[in-house]
Amino acid sequence: MRFFALLALAAAAATASPVSPVSNVVVAPPITAPAGGAVWPVLSKQLVEWDTSYIPAEAQNYTGSVLLGHRIPGSDSENLDLYNPLATGFRLTDGEVEVVTPVVPPDNAYFVVLVGDSADRSLDFTITAA
Hints:
The protein is mainly β. It has one helix spanning 2-15; strands spanning 31-33, 39-41, 45-50, 63-71, 78-80, 87-91, 96-100, 107-115, 119-121, 125-128.
């Protein structure tokens, strides 16, 4: 009996249609600002910028988010603040979005990540006290 159940399951799997991805387009525009070594004072307005020349026509309506990350000095660990995005819902074709530097401890190991359907990471920059 188990053999026939397995045989029926295998036959059903063999005739099932393959799952197709929604899109084969992967968009991960390179971040151009903040540049490495940039300094963002807490609560200041800053621009996150990226190169839009890598965005294909079929991805013109994609939207994105910007997340703040922190590299743990002396290790390979990186942490992203997934719960408090710096910006959301903007079009990737905009090429820039204004953010407000959050209140975080001063350090020179911060970075931002631009998330669309893929992600790109900026170089490290510094956040200072207000």
